[in-house]
Design brief:
The chain is mainly alpha-helical. Helix content is 72%, strand content 2%. The longest helix is centred in the C-terminal third of the chain and has 41 residues, at 386-426. It catalyses: Na(+)(in) + 2 H(+)(out) = Na(+)(out) + 2 H(+)(in).
Length: 447
Amino acid sequence: MTDNTVLSRGSYKESQRISEILSKESTGGIILLIATLLALIFANSAASEHYFGLRDTYLGADFWGLHLKLSIGHWASDGLLAVFFFLVGLELKKEFVEGDLRNPGKAMVPIVAAAGGVALPALFYVLVNLNSSDEALGGWAIPAATDIAFAVAILAVIGSHLPAALRTFLLTLAVVDDLIAITIIAVFYTSDLQIGYLALAIIPIALYALVARKGEKLFHLSPAASWLILLPIGFIVWVLFLNSGIHATIAGVILAFLIPVRQNARTEAADAHYGLAEVMEHRVRPFSAGFCVPVFAFFSAGVFIGGWEGFTTSITEPIAYGIVIALVLGKMIGITASTWLITRLRGANLDPDIKWVDIFGVASLAGIGFTVSLLIAELSFGLGSDYNDDAKVAILTASVTAAMIGGAILSTRNKHYKKIALKELEDANQDGVPDVFTDDSTKQQLS
């Protein structure tokens, strides 16, 4: 008999894995929040001239026909965010290779939800800005993405007892709509495409794939050693993408998908505890969460507001309130409606433990659009433009509003699930795994 239940509890191993991810991401979210607050303080203080001067300072040099002289702000958005999107791609691949979402039926729900959470906000923004300039309409993709670090950090703080399926749902749809946003960047925000550089990039990409997949067999490289060789090769790929006209963060996603997730037989026989994907994540995630994303936020979130009067002037611009409506209402309605629609079309139902108010709460948190939204705003309007400044104010306002709404809903639901968790703990097996995670066959194995 086919199981038509979606967002079901999943495995105990998956529950533990998602909890570990939330713990890691929540720390990064706190650092990101601190960086954002510092950016706003510096941009609106007597040190604002020095702050913007530092952001616009150029570093690097052009050589061999390669453009590598960029402002610090561009180094942050083009370079450091490539590391962030490498982790985005790696997490998505892990979800589909070994996570509960390797089941196409289960994967369909968050994918459709993410698509709805991208399409409806974009539509809302366009409707608000129909009578605006073409440049203003060019920011339609700004409300597309969910900020993983902030959304997951809030979920980790207030949702410690929420079902793992809900947390997986948020994590996956956040990753998917980030990738949709990156695809939008590649298609709609590519200028002066240089095919030659893309053709050259095939060589290091192929070498990267060879080392990642066959490094142990051909070069006797352990996973711990492979990443040291992959790093410089990946940098070459990034440089070629940077000069190709396609946004350089695309390189991070492509390289992530070349990393094998599962350990091969030889690695397992050698009693190695971690495969290459785990090693790469272990090495890269602290650098991304503790440095790359916060530095990007520090140089990107800084906007001169000009007090309450300046804030009201910015937020009443069509670009600004279009972004707020799109992120707050568009995400809520788009994700919830898409989830409802896909369950109806498949003749499926939510897991009995999960209610639609939970989906609405998660959809509200998905309205926290920060990292990728700031990036798309810069690509749409240009760093330092009035439109870009209005967009930044709107992104920050919408993100705070979405966090408050989602946090209020899910904190209430968390109390409900906490009572359930306490009951399950009382019924736990001797192995420490709650009975609810253990099917009949597993019980026989454990006994």
